[in-house]
Amino acid sequence: MTRPNPISGFPEWAPAQRMIEQRVIDRLRETFELHGFAPLETRAVEPMDQLLRKGETSKEVYVLRRLQADAEDPSDSGLGLHFDLTVPFARYVLEHAGKLQFPFRRYQIQKCWRGERPQEGRYREFLQADIDIVDRDALCPHYEVELPLVIADAFAGLPIPPIRMHVNNRKLSQGFYQGLGLAGPMAAIRVVDKLDKIGPAAVADQLRDALGASEEQAKACLALAEIRASDASFADAVRALGVSDPLLDEGLAELVAVVEAAAEHAPGLVVADLKIARGLDYYTGTVYETVLVGHESIGSVCSGGRYDNLASAGDVRYPGVGLSIGVSRLLGRLFGRDLLTVSRPSPTCVVVALPDEGDRVRCMRVAAALRGRGIPAEVAPAAAKYGKQIRFADRRGIPYVWFPGPEGEPDAVKDIRSGEQVEADAATWQPPAEDRRPRIAGA
RNA sequence: GUGGUUGUAGCUCAGUUGGCAGAGCACCGGGUUGUGGUCCCGGGGGUCGGGGGUUCAAGUCCCCUCAGCCACCCCA
Question: Smallest Cα–Cα separation from A186: which of A176, A196, A197?
Answer without folding.
Answer: A176
